[in-house]
Amino acid sequence: MVTYTERQAGSKLADFVADHAQVLSIALFFIACLIFFGSTTSTFLMPGNLLNVLRQAAPILVVAVAMTLVITTAGIDLSVGSMVALINALAALTMAAGLGWVLTVPLMLIAGALIGAVQGWFISYQKIPAFIVTLAGLSILRGAALYLTEGYSIPIRDAAGFFWLGRGTFAGVPVPALISILVAMLGFVVMARTQYGRQVIAVGSNMEAARRVGMPAKRVLASVYVVSGVASALAAILIAARLGSGSSNAAQGFELQVIAAVVLGGTSLMGGKASMLGTVLGTMTIAVIGNGLILMHISPFFTQIVTGTIILIAIWMNTRLFDRPWKLRRKSAS
Amino acid sequence: MMVSDIVQEGGGAVPPSPPILRLKGIEITFGSNQALRGVDLDIRAGECLGLIGDNAAGKSTLSKVMSGTYVPDAGMIELDGRPVRFATPAQARDLQIEMVYQDLSLCDHIDVVGNLFLGRELKRGPFLDQPRMLQEAEAMLAALEIRIPRLTAKVEKLSGGQRQAIAIARAASFQPKVLLMDEPTSALAVAEVEAVLELINRVKARGVAVVLVTHRMQDLFRVCDRIAVMYEGTKVAERRTEDTNLQELVDLIVGKGGH
User: Fold this and answer.
1) Any transmembrane segments, and where (chain A) (predicted)?
2) Residues of B in contact with A209 (CB under 8 A)
3) Which is deepest, A72, A155, B41, B109, by most CB within 10 Å?
4) Domain B21-107+159-254 class?
C-alpha cells in the first residue's frame, strides 16, 4: 500500500520576509542611521532639523519616484539634473518676462513632459540605449540652461504664492515635503495598484512577453521618460521657489543622488524589480546621512566620500546578503 | 458566423468539417533563408493537429505565422472562411488565437495571478481588481487541475513545470478558438506531461482547434487526430493518426518518405 502525503505550505512570515527582503534591509539601515546620528549629535532628532531634512529631500524624492519607473523598465535617465537646471532657469526667465507664476508652473510641467517625450521617442521608437540618449540630454539641457541665462542667476521677484511652494508650511510641515509625500503616495498606488504600473513592470521584466500579450510596450517605455520629465520640472519649481532664483548651476550631481536613492531602495537596474517604499527609504537615508554628517561637524569635503562609501556598502550588503537570506536560515533550521 | 463557401475536396469516409483556420501558400524568407516555401494547412475545430519535423524544418516559424509573431511574405490566412491579416500577436489574440511560446513569455517579477491576466487585467475603476483576479485565477487553475501552492508568489520562484503550466493555463483559459502550443511538454516531468496531454484532450473536447508543435513522438499518438510533417520549409505529408505509425513518421521527418 502506497500512501501519499502532501507538502505543508511554508509559513506566511517566511514568504513575506523573502518577498520584501530588500525593503526590510534598507528600513533597518535607515533606522540604524537615525539611531547613530540621534545618539552622536544633540540636534539631529529635534523636530526643526527633521523637518529641514524633509524639505531638503523633497526634490530628490519627487524625481526618485519617477526614476523608479524608469529603472523598472531597465532604463536610466541621466538628464534629470540638467532638466532641473533648465526648467529652473526657464521658470525664472518666464516670470521675469512678466508671466504670472500660476501660468508659469503648468507651463514648466508641460515643458518637462515635452523634453521627456523627445528622449522617450529616441529610446523606445528609435532603439537608442537610454544611457546614450539621456547622457546627450544631460549635456544639451545643461548647455541650454547656461545659454539662456548666460551663467547668471535670475532672481524671482514679487511672487509670494510661488515662494510658499518652496518655503511655506502647512500644518507645521514644509510645503515641498508635503508635495513630495503626495508624489510618493501617488507613485506607490500607480506602481502597485494600476494597470499602467503593471505594464511598466511587465515591460521591464520581459519586453517581448508584454508585446505578445498586447500591451502597448513601446508607448509604455517612452512614457516613463515623460513621467521623469514632469517630475524633474516639479523638482525644479520646488528648488526655484525655495531659493527665489533660477540658475543654470542648480542641481549639480542631482542625477547621481536620485539614482543612488532608487538603487539603495532595492529597485534592480536590470529591470522588472521595483519598490516604491524602498525608494522613499533610500532617499531619506541619503538625506539623513548628508544632514547628520554636517551636524557632526565633519568636513563637507569628507561628506561626499562618506556618502559614496555608505551607498556602495549598503548596496553590496543588499545584493550579497539580503538577496538570499532564507537559504541560509533554512539550512541552519533543518 | 459565416460559413465557408469553399468546396471541400476531402472525399474520405467522414467528410471533414470546414476548417476554422486555413493557411494557403504561406511563404516567408529571413535574409537568404527561405524559412517557409508555400505551406497549405487546414486546422479544424475540436481537433488536434500535430506539427512535426526536424530542427529548422519550419514548424516553429509556421506556428509563429499563425500567432501573428511573423507576417508572411506571401500566402493567405483565413479564419472562419474570412481572409484575415494580423501584424502583431495582439491582433491574433483578439481573434481568439492563443499561443503558448516555447520560451513561455512569462514575466518573472510578476506574481502568478498577474501573469495569468497579463494584458487582460481586470479593473475596478482606475485600479486593478486584485481580489477578483486571484479568485478567478484559482478557478482557472482548478479547472485545468494545475496545483500551485501560492498564487501571489513571483513566477521566478516557481519550478520549470509550474511555469509551463501557468503559460498553458493563460492561453487555454480565455475561450480560444485556436490554441497553438510550441513544445509545451519539453521541460516537464512525467506527471506534468500527463497533465498537459489530458489538458489538451479537455480543451479539444470544448471544440477548440489545437496545434501541437513537438519533438516527442509518443505525445502525438496520445492527443493528435492529424499529423503534418514539415521538411525544409514545406509540408511534405499529412496523415490521420490512426493511419500511420511511428516508423512512417520518422521516415517522413528525415526525408526517406519516398517522395
Assistant:
1) 23-45, 57-76, 96-118, 130-149, 169-191, 220-244, 250-269, 276-295, 301-322
2) 105-107, 118
3) A72
4) alpha beta
